[in-house]
From TrEMBL, chain A:
InterPro entries: AP3_complex_dsu (IPR017105), ARM-like (IPR011989), ARM-type_fold (IPR016024), Clathrin/coatomer_adapt-like_N (IPR002553)
PANTHER family found in the cross-reference section: AP-3 COMPLEX SUBUNIT DELTA-1, DELTA ADAPTIN-RELATED
Stated name of the protein: Armadillo-type protein
Swiss-Prot/TrEMBL GO biological process terms: Golgi to vacuole transport; protein targeting to vacuole
Bias-annotated ranges (Basic and acidic residues): 728-746, 783-794
Predominant subcellular localization, coarse grouping: membrane
TrEMBL record, chain B:
Protein name (database record): Putative Golgi to vacuole transport-related protein
Coiled-coil blocks: none
Keywords recorded for this protein, A-Z: Cytoplasmic vesicle, Golgi apparatus, Membrane, Protein transport, Transport
Transcription recorded as keyword: no
PANTHER family, per the entry: ADAPTOR COMPLEXES SMALL SUBUNIT FAMILY
Keyword Nucleotide-binding: no
Length: 827, 213
């Protein structure tokens, strides 16, 4: 039989690359067949070659390994030949996955190789072990002693590999950590720098995954490495490790400052210098309480700023400078401001990596002064391109929708910048950042809410990346919180509603319908600010369609009703024949718009539509039967009308039904309640908040006190919230009372859950008590001989007193009850 | 730690792919394709760090550093808050060398490490080129295994690395030459039990038989 080596296989694959797909697949299938035979054969060298070929093919094609692949790998792993064994161990990570049972077969072979006196052998299993150990707790358990043994192997090459294996081993077998930790600690002061580096790496990973708390005791060793080592790689690792440890132990900072500052000033390696700067920032060394913090921060920022300003220099340094500046912003924003120009320039960088970092930095730089300029800048990025910023043309819109799939086909470097702007993922990030900047800390940085609303509308229009729902929520939130912005918001959104582009936007994605939803709802809720309710109603009704989601349609119905209600109220003030006919035609058009919804698939929509139709019926009937009050008749026949004088003067000059709808929708204004609102309500006299509700930390000693607590809680519910004040105050009080009631119910529920058994025992009748005592005695007698029962002498004493408040009386009773029942049956 | 080491050429053909964190093979393939398309899109002269808003490296949950919870709803969407995975790459002639690492590694340090890797390959192949990597697939693995083990850095000194690589190669050569039964196998020399190397293929089967397989 002709045997193909890996080289032959690769040559064959390359030869078939040029030919058709089918031929390549045929070749592949043939090769796999050969490999299968080779794997099954007896020749170990062929088997190893076959395994290597499978590994190669698996890297290139998404093919599953042949049946029994892992088993063959085990065979090759146990070959006595070094070069075959090495191939076996090389393939092991690819052959063994979590569900491979063959791992069990490897244990003895691996053990033997690990303990081999031949220097070249132990590294082979150690290379493959991290992968195998991570999958198999039992393997980790079995090999743990061997790994610990190898930590003191004579060869540093074996020692450092063994150290690295500890991490996956402890990951799968956490119990080993306790035993092995001191051994790992010894390796931190190993003679060989490679072993020390490996140990530092393992400690770093452990500290990252478990939190650094347990690794603080290693600080002396790590400090020794920091001051003693000259290996940059190890120094970088130690410095990074200290960035995790110092926030947990502030005293470390004072100790670390001298060596780190000396490294900063002396090292020639930028990577080490950068990590020192980063550790200063992340490790809390710039705490403003320290005298040396300010100059140190200055040094750090200057170093980073130097990287950032490095024109034509290293792009990598600009990237990491931006990365580290993000971390320093919270404590030293004033220092970063000096570099604001460079940072803003980085927003336009052709490199998307740098852009993203700059974007992150910029969004944390925002304050009240610069929010406008930064947001404008980001908005310009978000707009498809400069030329179409104002009014996107159809072509630009299309390009924006198509995204990078079209654009990336062109390899023109000059198009790169535009392409980044068009990448949907980047645009999404940009849009989210924009919204985040505005919403940050409950609009802390926003000084002009009219501007904020217009930015939100712009974002919704130009982004086209599915942030519509977020825009909607923000608009609702702003309009609800800021009363003064409502007229502006309504007029802006009214314009949106009349804009054809809006419906274009909302056709596609449901998420894009956010702006439409917000516009309709806000125009409805604050309809008194509308400039022309008639056009708004008709343009809202245009959006009723079968593809519109029912949540949107139900908002439409409700908003139309609200707008009509406020229109009626406004019309009543100047009622005339013309307004009457206008109102009637409006009502008619609404009715025709809503009628189609009577059979809408959404229940909510159906209900609202029918409700509205009926209300309109009332109004129509009233309008039709309405006659203007006959003021003239009164004067003609004064005598006759005398008796009805009072009633006729009360008669309004407009149909009463105009006021039918309005109270349904606008009697309660929606208000935002501040987070601290509760704090403004002063507690009533006689209420001691600091008093323990349950004396003794929630573990009542007797039942009487427990009952008392309940009473005192009842008292609490009738908290006096004061009287008077405006209508808003009254609402607030109502809400607070409501919350208090709910709170109480919840608290009660918890109590019932937690102490339910106890409250049961509180209502025991005398009969039950006797019964219980009997059962208890029986249980005692039974438990006397039970070796698993801890006998409490106090029990006996309490028993004599026949004390109801016996601690044993409480929850355990019922639990034991059931147990007794079952054991009784068994007997 | 280092999550993955990838080498692919400028056409996206993988030349080496090693994942140190368990990731299903199909996800691995799609990740390689994704990273390649992002990297090959980048113009010359930009930085060596790949940050893309739509690139997410699916890490097993136990490997993520403990996330600090943020109450701010708008911050919650921030991908960078809890995911510090970075893709760091270097471009040599027709090949991209890509390392996927997390926050435990220094960005600039990894750039140096890639250089160390390439130089080690260069020493082992004597001016390495893509063809070397293609036809000596196993050799590349051996070199890398002297630098990284299980996602943690084993050695950064190029001299020490090439020493280890060379001694491994000579061991292999000796072992392969000893296929001739007249020459005693390398491993039956000191320490191992007599009769162990009695015949190729015999040992493992005996060993498996002893295990009751």
């Amino acid at each position: 039989m002709f045997e193909r080596t890996l080289q032959d296989l690769i040559r064959g694959l390359r030869a078939h690359k040029a030919s058709s797909k089918a031929q390549e697949e045929a070749f592949l299938a043939e090769a796999m067949n050969e490999i299968r035979d080779e794997l099954k054969g007896k020749d170990m060298a062929l088997k190893a070659e076959g395994i290597l070929k499978v590994c190669y093919l698996m890297m290139l094609y998404p093919i599953p390994p042949p049946v029994g692949f892992a088993f063959h790998v085990v065979e090759v792993m146990s070959s006595p030949r070094f070069h075959l064994k090495q191939l076996g161990y090389l393939a092991a990570p690819m052959a063994f996955t979590g569900d491979t049972e063959e791992v069990v077969l490897t244990v003895n072979g691996i053990k033997k190789d690990l303990m081999s006196s031949h220097l070249a052998l132990p590294p082979l299993p150690l290379t493959a072990l991290p992968h195998l150990l991570a999958f198999s707790p039992s393997l980790s358990h079995t090999l743990h002693p061997d790994l610990l043994h190898l930590l003191t192997h004579s060869s540093p090459r074996v020692r450092k590999r063994a150290v690295l294996c500890l991490l996956p081993c402890w990951e799968a077998f956490p119990e080993g950590l306790r035993e092995g930790f001191p051994r790992l600690r010894e390796r931190l002061s190993d003679d060989d720098s490679g072993v020390v580096g490996a140990a530092v790496g393992v400690v770093m990973e452990l500290a990252r995954r478990q939190g650094g708390k347990n690794y603080l005791p290693l600080a002396p060793e790590l400090f020794g490495i920091l001051t003693g080592s000259s290996n940059n790689w190890i120094l970088i690792k130690v410095v990074k490790l200290f960035a995790i440890l110092t926030p947990l132990e502030p005293r470390l900072v004072r100790k670390l400052l001298p060596p780190i500052t000396s490294l900063i000033s002396s090292t020639s390696a930028i990577s080490l210098l950068y990590e020192c700067v980063r550790t200063c920032i992340v490790g809390g060394m710039l705490d403003p309480d320290r005298a040396e913090a300010e100059p140190l921060a200055r040094v750090c920022v200057e170093k980073l700023g130097g990287y950032l300003r490095d024109e034509g220099g290293d792009q990598n340094l600009r990237y990491i400078a931006l990365l580290a500046m993000v971390k320093i912003i919270p404590t030293h924003p004033h220092m970063i401001v000096e570099y604001q120009d460079e940072i803003l320039q980085s927003l336009d960088d052709p490199d998307i990596s740098i852009r993203m970092r700059a974007l992150e930095l910029v969004s944390s730089m925002v304050d009240r002064e610069n929010i406008r300029s930064i947001v404008d800048r980001l908005l310009a990025h978000l707009a498809p391109s400069g030329a179409t910023e104002g009014l996107p043309t159809a072509a630009a819109t299309l390009a924006a929708f198509a995204g990078p799939s079209f654009a990336s086909s062109s390899q023109d470097p000059s198009a790169t910048s535009a392409r980044i702007t068009l990448s949907p993922a980047y645009r999404l990030l940009l849009a989210q950042r924009l919204l985040g900047i505005i919403a940050h800390d409950t609009y802390a940085n926003v000084t002009d809410f009219e501007w904020a609303v217009s930015v939100l509308v712009d974002v919704a229009f130009v982004s086209r990346v599915g942030v519509g729902a977020d825009v909607r929520d923000l608009l609702f939130d702003i309009v609800g919180r800021v009363k003064s912005v409502r007229p502006f918001a309504v007029s802006a959104l009214e314009r949106c509603l009349n804009d054809d582009r809006l419906s274009e936007l909302s056709v596609g994605d449901e998420a894009e319908a956010g702006l439409l939803e917000a516009s309709i709802w806000i125009c409805g809720e604050y309809s008194s600010f509308l400039s022309s309710p008639l056009t708004v109603i008709s343009s809202i009704l245009l959006h009723v369609s079968h593809i519109a989601p029912s949540s949107l349609v139900s908002i439409i119905v409700q908003s139309v009703a609200k707008i009509f209600a406020s229109y009626c109220v406004a019309a009543s003030s100047s009622w005339s024949a013309s307004t009457s006919s206008e109102t009637r035609s409006l009502s008619l058009s609404i009715r025709s718009g809503v009628e189609s919804l009577h059979s809408h698939s959404g229940n909510e929509v159906q209900e609202r539509a029918i409700e509205l139709s009926h209300l309109l019926d009332f109004i129509d009937a009233d309008l039709a039967s309405y006659r203007p009050p006959a003021t003239s008749t009164k004067s003609e026949i004064p005598g006759v009308s005398g008796g009805f004088d009072t009633s006729s003067s009360d008669q309004p000059t407009y149909p009463k039904s105009l006021f039918l709808l309005s109270p349904l929708y606008s009697s309660h204004e929606l208000n935002a309640v501040a987070v601290e609102a509760q704090a403004f309500i002063s507690p009533p006299e006689g209420l001691n908040i600091d008093l323990d509700i349950v004396p003794g930390g929630g573990f009542p000693t007797d039942l009487e006190s427990y009952d008392m607590d309940e009473e005192s809680e009842e008292e609490r519910s009738t908290v006096d919230l004061g009287e008077g004040g405006s209508k808003g105050m009254e609402d607030l009080r109502k809400i607070i009372r409501q919350q208090e009631l709910e709170d109480q119910q919840r608290r009660k529920g918890q109590k019932l859950k937690g102490k339910g058994k106890k409250s049961d025992s509180a209502v025991l009748t005398a009969e039950e008590k006797a019964e219980k005592a009997k059962r208890k005695a029986a249980r005692k007698a039974k438990a006397k001989d039970d070796p698993y029962y801890l006998h409490d002498e106090r029990d006996d004493k309490d028993d004599k007193d026949d004390n109801d408040d016996d601690i044993d009386e409480i929850p355990i009773v019922h639990l034991d009850d059931t147990e007794m029942g079952t054991t009784g049956q068994l007997e | 730690m280092i999550h993955a080491v990838l080498i692919f050429n400028t056409h996206g053909k993988p030349r080496l792919s090693i994942f140190y964190t368990p990731i299903p093979p199909l996800v691995q393939q799609s990740l390689i394709a994704q990273i390649f398309s992002l990297i090959s899109d980048r113009p010359a002269g930009v930085c060596n760090f790949l940050d893309a808003p739509d690139l997410v490296f699916p890490l097993p949950t136990n490997l993520r550093p403990k996330a600090t919870s943020t109450n701010d709803r708008w911050k919650g969407k921030d991908r960078a808050e809890d995911d510090d995975t970075r893709v760091i790459y270097r471009h040599y002639a027709t090949l991209y060398f890509v390392f996927v690492v997390d926050g435990a590694e220094s960005e600039l340090g990894i750039l140096d490490l890639i250089q160390v890797f390439v130089e080690s390959l260069d020493r082992s192949f004597e001016s390495v080129c893509e063809l070397d990597l293609i036809f000596h697939f196993d050799e590349v693995h051996h070199v890398l295994s002297e630098i990284i083990q299980g996602g943690l850095v084993l050695e950064t000194n190029i001299n020490e690395i090439s020493l280890c690589v060379r001694s491994g190669a000579s061991n292999r050569k000796a072992s392969a030459a000893s296929a001739n039964p007249i020459i005693p196998t390398l491993l039956s020399a000191p320490g191992s039990r007599p009769g162990r190397g009695s015949g190729p293929g015999d040992g493992p089967r005996r060993w498996l038989a002893a295990m009751g397989v």
